[in-house]
Amino acid sequence: MRNRIYTLFAFITITACAVVLNGQTPGNVKPSLIAGDVVSVQPGKIVFTTKDGEMSATLSEQTEFKKIPPDNRKMSAAVPAALDDIEAGDKIVVSGFPADDKKSVPARTVYLMSKSELAAAKAKELEKWRTRGISGRVTAVDPATGQISIDVTSLGSTTKVVLTPKEQAKYLRYAPNSVAYSEALPSKFADVAAGDMLRAVGDRSADGASFAAEEILTGAFQTHAGTVKSVDIAKNEVVITELQSKKDVTVSLGSASMMKKFPEQMAQMLAARQSGGEQAGPGAPAAQGGQTPPRMGGGQGGQAPGRMNGGQGGPGGGARGGIDEMLDRFPNVTAADLKVGDMIAVSSSKSSTPDHITAIKLLAGVEPFVRMAQMSAAGGRSRGPGSQSLSIPGLDGGFDMP
What we know:
By secondary structure, this protein is of the alpha+beta class. The protein contains five helices and 20 strands.
């Protein structure tokens, strides 16, 4: 998923750059801009696949070649290129007038974004978020000081951190119904609000209590948990009866970036670990001697810029890094796999239509977490299963974002 998001970002950006240049072409008739992936480079033509199928860009002595650097995706940064720079797998946008059969296009200009350069830029971005990233839930915003307080949550603890934006800090905000880093929109300090999920890259103090941020990404999200009431495979929708409100909520699944199912024993172990060893249900491995079960999946690991975790070391920092990797390995599910009576949890953007949401991420097999929340509520330690006590790794709490 992360690779698809990243390459899509590059693809869209290079297309936009070509559009800018095309707008400068004199005359009322403008050439088409056709984007795709290079299949092969042959004498006199480039074969590439588009959303509508395979095409050939026929080349001439007048054809220009331009390369868009992956670290500066602006037309002003474009540099001259050559046909020899293009390889199979590269992204291109061809400017020209397609033939009537739409199978070929005499290329006026070929805009290139190199597959190898994209991979190198992606690796650099991953390393930045792995080593200098932090994430958590916003608890307070102070316009007077320009500081943002966040709770950074791991499976075992919560740490309070005060974030101070650096001069010229960059602000982004997740687009509606999206947690794709590539789709984030320009934002500002005034857009940040308590309850938001926040990711930032910058420098954390030695004691971990403060963070100087040079890039800040925020979003307003909500989690719904409930029992499946009906499934409409044709519409790719499910209706759940929400635990907290007892109301029906229609969940559209078409835009879901991840749909996974917790293996039963894993869910029981993680639910027990969250509670410090309480039984999450039959077969759950209670902690012995007051100790929590062993940490799963390791603490540090590179995650995509679109991931959000608590702690330090990944984009949100190490302690939750293993959750991302575990979720990737969990079984995928579709609407057809969901049955009436199943318990699921869904993340979505906050919206004005709470009875109809679009899933960003869906997790099935969450019954142990719900039982644990209900046990906590019965013991008087929370307001109920719909409150913050229902924390599902990879979905709520640290808000693991794809």
